[in-house]
Amino acid sequence: MTRTPAVYDIVSQTTVTGPEFNFSEITLLVADGTHAFRKMVTRVLARFGFAAVHEAVDGHEALDALRHHHIDIVMTEWQLAHVSGYHLIQRLRHDPALFDPERRVIMLTGLTEKARVVAARDAGVDGFLRKPVSPDTLFKRIVGVIEHPVGLANLEAASKAGSPSASKAN
Fold it and tell me: Fewer CB within 10 Å, N- or C-terminus of the chain?
């Protein structure tokens, strides 16, 4: 497989320092329609030592992976074909067949308008990252959502407040 120089350089420079964290029993799903970005993130995550990293090119593939694999952390782009990342998060948080209170969700997107960030928060994300993202930032956000999950608390607060942010962000 041929790698672009930019992807190769980012992956080969993945030297995150900080506290030791054992990811060997954690599985992830990376849902992103951009092949090069998805592969780069997957390689970085593999270097972090995750047990398994599943990939999805669109929302349907993401839902299929969630139905067939145990996934601890979902990283999704907002703009996915068929089922958007935002709607994927809603399904994860509301569909009894997909709901897992221990699952963490990170929105990883270039779409960072305030309305989208608020909508993602209110939908139940545990973390939000703006593309492009460095390996160090990715590592820190993953550790942050594992140690301090906020998605379900945000979802509960938004539903109590009757947040209209979701309709504004779509």
Answer: N
